[in-house]
Fold this sequence. Notes:
The structure is a homodimer.
Chain A: H1 9-30, H2 34-50, H3 52-68, H4 73-79, H5 83-98, E1 106-111, E2 117-124, E3 127-132, H6 136-148, E4 152-156, H7 162-178, E5 186-188, H8 193-201, E6 209-213, H9 216-225, E7 238-242, H10 248-260, E8 269-275, H11 276-292, E9 296-299, H12 301-304, E10 313-315, H13 318-321, E11 329-335, H14 338-348, E12 353-357, H15 361-370, E13 375-380, E14 397-399, E15 407-409, E16 415-426
Parallel strand pairs in A: 3-4, 3-6, 4-5, 7-8, 7-12, 8-11, 9-10, 9-11, 12-13
Antiparallel strand pairs in A: 1-2, 2-16, 14-15
Amino acid sequence: MTAASEIHPKTVRGVTRIARNAKAAASQLATTSTAEKNTALTAVADALRANTDRIVAANEADIAAGIDDGMSEALLDRLRLDADRIAAIADSVDAVVDLADPVGDVVLGRTLPNGIRLTQTRVPMGVIGAIYEARPNVTVDIAVLALKSGNASVLRGGSAAQNSNAEIITVLRNAVASAGLPADAINGIDQFGRDGANVLMHARDFVDLLIPRGGTELINMVVQESIVPVIETGVGNVHMFIDSTATVKTAVDLVLNSKTQRPSVCNSLETLLVHEKAAKRVLPKILDRLDGEGVVVHADSDVAAHAPTTMKIKRVSRRDWAKEYLGLEIAVKLVSGIEEAIDHIRAYSSGHTEVIVTKDLDNADTFVAAIDAAAVGVNVSTRFTDGGELGFGAEVGISTQKLHARGPMGLEQLTTTKWVMMGNGQIRS
Amino acid sequence: MTAASEIHPKTVRGVTRIARNAKAAASQLATTSTAEKNTALTAVADALRANTDRIVAANEADIAAGIDDGMSEALLDRLRLDADRIAAIADSVDAVVDLADPVGDVVLGRTLPNGIRLTQTRVPMGVIGAIYEARPNVTVDIAVLALKSGNASVLRGGSAAQNSNAEIITVLRNAVASAGLPADAINGIDQFGRDGANVLMHARDFVDLLIPRGGTELINMVVQESIVPVIETGVGNVHMFIDSTATVKTAVDLVLNSKTQRPSVCNSLETLLVHEKAAKRVLPKILDRLDGEGVVVHADSDVAAHAPTTMKIKRVSRRDWAKEYLGLEIAVKLVSGIEEAIDHIRAYSSGHTEVIVTKDLDNADTFVAAIDAAAVGVNVSTRFTDGGELGFGAEVGISTQKLHARGPMGLEQLTTTKWVMMGNGQIRS
């Protein structure tokens, strides 16, 4: 990261001007009606469909550059846009039109003894910055959720998606302007490179909230560097503890679903803790099924003793306990009971999702009370920590911090509140 | 501010050890019942009364040092503790016992289509750090509100109050331990000086929230330096706009109360904007009354034309518009209408409290919608933005940022939530 003092003045001026314009647009959006915002969102969905060819062409340039740079197939897949994917993105924008607008909701209202009528009313945050990696769908996700909740956005995507993002942002800005809202409601700063991201992280006068979305390294960099308030999202070193009373079927189903239903995402299972008294009953079947799904298991010899003879187990190291594999790998450990399970989770949890599988009411209560995470589950797949699954509609990410938003961040989490005091001359005595 | 790399390893180890112990205490407090916490708080109040002499003696050492250092009478007054003040502090602790405990409140609950019972439950934040200036009552305020809401605290007061704070923290820790809770629920780090504050601002693994309380300089330093999430409190460049339809009596009453009822606090009025059509009616009386109360008025000649001939008006400069006087001074400006008033407030507001005085419904609505501040008032004194006045009981400060807490921060703002998912084997398809 370049020190702020070494950034070219042109970059500082350029990003600052964009952030200032975004703030002016945000003032206008704050008093824009839900109907007007929905009209603009519909225009955005239509424009994405109408400009599919242009967006695909821009994306092809990014893909070609990615191949030249030796980008992995998994990353190329995240980067790739085709007509089907753009259609799906446009449909997701239409779905946001149908979500309730949180702006204007009265969170609390009372009349004070002196007659002042007090209301706490939901209002937009203002300007939301986002710094993320090379997934161009995130550009649309964040811009659209910000707009629906009355916010302007300033977006810094990965440089590998630069052409795609530039084209998408042009399409979005034109669509928003065609619906009579300010084009500066949506802004890209990819053209300023990494230094532009640095300026954004220091634009505290104009940016109200910064959301980093990506891997641990990106998030840590933003947390360290930003003086704009940050909400951390998405790092999930997710645990499941199989208690001695768990039934084999439930344990097997939940482990398999949590690990393999979509291994690349933050709410997938990374470390399995098994009560030593349950090991003989549940582990042979769990290990066999994981093996069948191609999952690499990291464990010690006590665990390996329960594996099918043909199965290869990788020797577990301390580093595995802290690792978010985000793929078909899992660390497995025997524990002497719920206390050891809780201690292990406290030591290694990223505060995302932690689950116990048990039939014992006391242990369920103990686990829920003792574990400090955004979501704690009893006898459920870890994969349910998700805005859609929990009933919020679309989400900007899963917050793993405690301030402001914890867990899935939907539209409501992109707002703040304003206290309104209506009186007729009250003074304080 | 010392660069983190230059801090003595002993300071880093010492503060980190305290923060780690505080986190362990927080784990225990998270499952401590309200009754147990209240017993500990009552013990704290009793211990403050029983140890009045020791605390006063420690405070006398701070006062003596302050006099030697040439501290102003206003600062000495903030620093001073006597038997009456300690009795008042102990009474305020008893009042916290009577407040409702937010921990365990269910914020939202629903049953998902798949049968998972979902609840969003209020839980403590964990460890709350505070960095503040030389007012030893703040030590008790923050420690006690943190404890009531199930949090441990790590406190860094001003070095000028070092002896008072050390004695108070000893009394508090002993009282908490005597009630069976961990002494590490309350911790001081004054002994490590400024470098200790720096380590605290980087102790992200152990500290969940940092609250700076003090002047603009202190708050800006913490915002710039801290990688622990911060809530900004208390800077109030507060405006009042007198619209053309305001009655003289209401305008005079509200200006006088807002400026002079307690000028040293953040919700007192700093800049008065007057509609030019109201100037002739309201200004002579307002200026005369301000003069009578000894308030220094900063204004231009258009305003001065309405002043009593004997009154001295100070020539206003651009800097006055941005200034939080926190004393018997005020800036006054004529504006051509509500648009200019809103533009001026947008340019100079610190986002604390802004008030309009009007009889016009459209202008009241416009002002409330357009002004981006924690509190917006219509025909009320600015002094009502206060936890006690708005009905929250005690407060830790007034948040002027948009994330997590905006406006008075009471017990609820010292908590976060946890999503609890109760199921019987649900998997995601």
